[in-house]
Amino acid sequence: MKNKLLQSLIFIVLVVAAGCMSVPATTVTAGTTPLVTTQWLENNLGDKDLVVIDVRTTTNYGVGHIPGSYNIPYIGWEPMDPKTECQLMPKPEDLTRMLQAIGLNPSSHVIVYDHGNSIGDSTKGCATVWILEAIGHTNVSYLNGGFTKWTFEGRIIDNKVPESRSGTFVARLDGSKVSTLKQIQDTVKKKDAVLVDARNSNQHFGADKRADVERFGHIPGSINLPAPFLNNAGANRAPATIRDSKQLAQMVKGVGIPGDKDANIIVYCNTGQFAGMDYFVLHDILGYKNVGVYDGSMLEYGADDDLPLEKFSWGRRSR
Which of 4, 95, 106, 227 is the most exposed place for a label (fewest CB within 10 A)? Predict the structure, then answer.
């Protein structure tokens, strides 16, 4: 089932890549940051080394998208594993095929954007950034505010697909950025890393849970840094944008995450999606060097009754 899904996604990408729209070639601007603005992207759409990835649904992409962007829906980045029933990163060879089909090279500057209308949208984009970095592509930026901000500002959209490009990037997994259940178990025992729970506070506390998560509570010792707090999303605050770095640093300090940028940190949530935003904020914006994501998260951990959970407490606070 998983292989069929990946084959379908690769086919979609190849169809997208076979389109007819060309973009004038220039050279990508140096000195870009992990978080780029809509104005920056509009100014740089013609850069020959720029690869723009739209992680929205294929339907939304077909209605209209940022010119020159390729569509790889988020489900292609974190498909459901039929064995574990968890959303897990695809194999590097599958990601290699998908990314080469849109012309990704080792030197490419990737811009990831999502719908930008909610916390769910933003976490998909940030989780995609994490996956790209976890497979060795470090020149990645996230479009702040996504497609919603782009359209709110009246910028041009298109329903055509970009011209075909063949890339040479080869995905190689960086194990330091992808944490396993075994590592989580060791961390709970040894307390040799900081565990960060990106879920909403009611789920961390144990008062509520997702229907598909088996048990209430959080992994022992984990600190709660809810992904929704890191974002300006909300019904009256669209488009959804990442908070400024000063506020983010205050939040991280306030919940008790150590200030040592060399600290070992492992982020989790329910599926790995919300954890992607915490990863992006900690690693890409605030400069923490050793941050990994446990993408099995509570779907995997909570399914084993022999693994300890804490509830009705706020977990560890490190100072």
Answer: 4
